[in-house]
UniProtKB/TrEMBL annotation:
Belongs to the amidase family. GO terms for biological process: fatty acid catabolic process. Pfam families: Amidase (PF01425). This is Fatty-acid amide hydrolase 1. Its EC number is 3.5.1.99. The active site is at K151, S226, S250. It catalyses: N-(5Z,8Z,11Z,14Z)-eicosatetraenoyl-glycine + H2O = (5Z,8Z,11Z,14Z)-eicosatetraenoate + glycine; (6Z)-octadecenamide + H2O = (6Z)-octadecenoate + NH4(+); N-docosanoyl-ethanolamine + H2O = docosanoate + ethanolamine; N-tricosanoyl-taurine + H2O = tricosanoate + taurine. The chain crosses the membrane at residues 20-38. It comes from the Eukaryota.
Amino acid sequence: MMIQQQLRQLLPERKVDTSAALSLLGGSVAALVVWKWLGKKMVQKKMEEARRTRDEGLKKMAKAVQQFREQVPSVQRDAILSLPLLELTAKLQEGSLSPRTVLYTYLEKALEVTQETNCLRHFIPECEQQLQEIEGHKEKGLLYGIPVSIKDHIGHKGQLATCGLVQFLGTLMEEDSVLVKVLKRQGAIPFAMTNVPQSLFSYSCSNPIFGQTLNPLNRQRSPGGSSGGEGALIAGGGSVLGVGSDMGGSIRLPCSFCGLCGLKPTAGRLSLSGVTGPVNGILAVPCALGPMARDVDSLALCMKALLCQEMFQLDPTVPPIPFNEQVYSSSTALRVGYYDTDGYFPLPPCMRRAVKETRRALQAAGHQLVLFSPPRVPYVMTELFMKTFFADGGHTWLDVFTGDIVDPGLKPQVNSCKMPRLVKKLLALLLKPLFPRLADYLSALAGMRSVKEMWNHHHQIQEYRAQFIAQWKELQLDVVLCPVLGPAFTTGYPGKLLTAISSTMLYNVLDFPAGVVPVSTVTEADEEELKLYKGCCDDPWDRTLKQAVSGAVGMPVAVQCVALPWQEELCLRFMKEVETLSRDQRLA
């Protein structure tokens, strides 16, 4: 009766058949429910088709591997898989190993690793065609016969670039990205595309289409992200060299979690042409492509191969700076700045121990160590980094989930973004006295209100870079040694701690080359010390971090190495020094 009266009030001048109106209203609601149900069914059907296509591809590759095994039964698989990239390259160049043998050996191992970790999004069937092409070439490139895995969104002709989103499932790439073209030109064989988190904006590795990727060193733990599929595949032994991307730590965090070496170069050093993303045009904090491998020499060889005339001609926006072998091979003593906490998100005891032990080893090797304090990291994290990505309050990022199913790991971020701007600001005000970091995070999620404010924000980033470089120069530093987030989180925790990435995020805002090197593993003593961990504020984030990393005895512990922009060779040289010293310590 109440609804009927309201309808009469809304339409007072006409005679209304309230029963018909109610039927119409009920029908509309029912139609809406059916429409949403059909939409969800359509999304699920697309995801099932994508998984079926992936599984069929895996079966085809397994069949191809089996045929090769029958033809060449005497292959020493373990011996090939154990070869470092430089030794493998030498054997391929001299002809003592064939590209065919190496490719099918790694295809077989990759099949095993993905069965355990779900790290592959697709095999690239064209790898067999690329194999035939390089076998017919007289000229052998620097990566001749090397199977290379690539991250989901790095374009390969005839393949999807999904970013873990349903909306990208129907579009195949029409041509190779510049990076893939150059890899092929250097004789490499791109053979697999690896899994990523939904929308890439996470350091977990899960999406509703292809599922959760696991860490091969401990399947209860995350491999990191967003290049998590790469991390899992390489750490599991299924790839000797991979290419990832990094906009907040997406190369360095998987390397830290999985015990690998990885380099995030200066953003413009390698071409981004043909690389897709769910949200394009974010220039204030740029994305960078970079290599991931088991050792630093592999990263250096990859960079040397990519920084060639072919890349400079295909993408004239890439500075024509070839790899400087003299800098990488240098043995002169370095002046190294160091810190073990950034003042925003104190890392677990094992990660700080790694910096201290590496500092002592560098000093003993004759390098000069200088205490360095990165300025205003809390300000950088919230005011510069978060506001860059959520400049419009997160609306553009939320749009990519339209008609999709949101991955559980992203729901905390999605729900935060969905709050009205006024609510974010009010909550930030109320929480400031109790939980200042959470308050600043919510305030940053509110975004910006005008173009003028955005221009000013870009200017603030420029000013911060200038301040940071001035402080670096004042101390006459060559490089910086600092911590990286780790050890590997228990699966499900990365989504609860987006802001824990301050250690890596800083060098995306600065656009400095930064790499990660494993130097140790978590000990029982680290685990005992973790029980006393209070973090920065003893707030919910600190307690969650403690839960995320507990029980990680035996997992890799890494450090981060940093250089000034365009000095990738110096960064790699420093990483090599750290790698050598840490190996010597372990052998001692």
